[in-house]
Amino acid sequence: MAENNLIHETSPYLLQHAHNPVEWYGWNETALKKAKDENKPIFLSIGYSSCHWCHVMAHESFENEDVAKFMNENFINIKVDREERPDIDDIYQKVCQIATGQGGWPLSIFLTPDQKPFYVGTYFPVLDSYGRPGFGSICRQLSQAWKEKPKDIEKSAEKFLDALQKTETVAVSTKLERVILDEAAMNLFQIGDPTFGGFGSAPKFPNAANISFMFRYAKLSGLSKFNEFALKTLRKMAKGGIFDQIGGGFSRYSTDAKWLVPHFEKMLYDNALIPVNYAEAYQITKDPFYLDVLQKTLDFVLRDMTSPEGGFYSAYDADSEGIEGKFYVWKKSEIKEILGNDADLFCLYFDVTDGGNWEGNNILCNNLNLSTVAFNFGVTEQKAQEIINSCSEKLLKVRSARVPPGLDDKILVSWNSLMITAFAKGYRVTNDARYLDAAKNCISFIENNLFDGDKLLRTYKNGSAKIDGYLEDYSYFINALLDVFEIEPDKKYLELALKLGNHLVDHFWDSSTNSFFMTSDNHEKLIIRPKSNYDLSLPSGNSVSAFAMLRLYHFSQTQNFLDVSTRIMESQAQMAAENPFGFGYLLNTIFCYLQKPLEITIINMENSNICNTLFTTFLPNSFIVTIHNSSQLDGLSKYPFFAGKTFKDKTLVFVCKDFTCSLPLQSIDEINSHL
């Protein structure tokens, strides 16, 4: 039997393929050397554990003995988990975009033995169908071409490489001024869906950074339509099937324009980015509806995605028992049996019908006001809400006894860092201590398990950490440290953030293009050293670095951090204005820079009224540090942000902006006059 080497991997995605008849390798020295030694092309397959079409292609092609036999004889076959190796994925996704105009997973690439791509696509059916060539026949044609016309293949590989190098060049730098935000906001608003919220048509993704930018632009311009659009989007999402109505948490995207039918996988990063939007919506409106969605989402992560060691798992699959969505959907008859007399009210509220709203089943969603439902059943709104809550708990209990979707339990520093930020922001608006504990526990987990000397590692599973950290691991983690530091200003958080910030500048910065590389200068060499500039489902490492460096500058007054931050913003501002959809996070950073950050220090938390007012007010360009005791202040006195401040026995607030500071303020009115 041919050997499949994936059995030695830790990634749940790679382990899913460890028993294929294909002789898979991970991406490593052995495999790359074997391709050169045997002069065989490489077949590279990139995917992730909760990817539906990855499972389909695996089942059709990689579990097929005949296809596998041909692959083993003619190619060196390498499997990569895109979540472990975003650098490899980034390079070959760009090739796929160049070749076909679109990317996606599974990503299927044929490479020369020196890793240059010569044929690329995404999902291939096993036999020719849907107007797509079958995987079997592609393998045969390419293998033949490699043997008979290697010069042609080298030529097409060189073409790809030239095109790829062009994608890495960054535009001319632009002066940072308000007109960039004006242009971006208008361009973004034009692609908004006025009926259901969100951007573009189906499939619809939650695009958290763009929603945050709408909120910021509304504050800047005083135009309420931007707030209204963002709030409508968040309301529609929370009432649709993309939000798990009884279990909390968001699916990755909606297959339709109205947020009803999700692609059922749940990713950690969505459930980290989206709650921040709901926290902001609550600060803007004070409507408890948004707070409720935030809490249900964070509680879902605490319940179902937190490891005993304090890290957060990566994802839940869309399928259970081989059927997409099976875990989440209901038949009306089943609900009636569980809920008895309360079923009718519950079913009216959550749009449950005999025929169902998706493939004969019901995805719970809510289109009716509580008042309408209560009126219909002759009960008070409060009573109706109690019935809905208790019914939801009963159904959740029944659901948790079902066969759960597969869990990808690897722990990634970058995604965990986003989750720390979400728990920190959630704590600020709810004062729920569990959220702050979760954030701090995760920081300790990363400190204890994911450092190799001064270097950050990327991924952890089964007690071992591996792969050097990427730009996103460093930049997201610096931000997470600062988010927790603002709540609990222990100097170790700030010191670690500053140390990592310096490490980034020393090992990732590219002064010729004013941006960061995705990988450090001592990372494994690939065909190019990639850059990530677009904020898509995840904010780009460059956008987050720009924000992290801006914050580090404000805490430490180290000029170099400000220079790096502004150079990134200037190099991408024009692209962001023209294509705001791909630069939401960067636009929020430019907003903060242009508005001049407010440095707010609260000394002594005794006056909870003042503290809560500040925490539940939307102050998007503020850094708010809360000093609980004098020893915290003593430990920080060497940093300009805290210099000259002394701890008092009553609550005092300092507001500094643009190099001038207020006197200590003691009342809400005084504080408001400085904001």
Automatic annotation (TrEMBL):
GO terms for biological process: carbohydrate metabolic process. It comes from the Archaea. Gene3D superfamilies: 1.50.10.20, Glutaredoxin (3.40.30.10). CDD domains: SSP411. Residues 4-165 form the Spermatogenesis-associated protein 20-like TRX domain. This is Thioredoxin domain-containing protein. It comes from Nitrosopumilus zosterae.
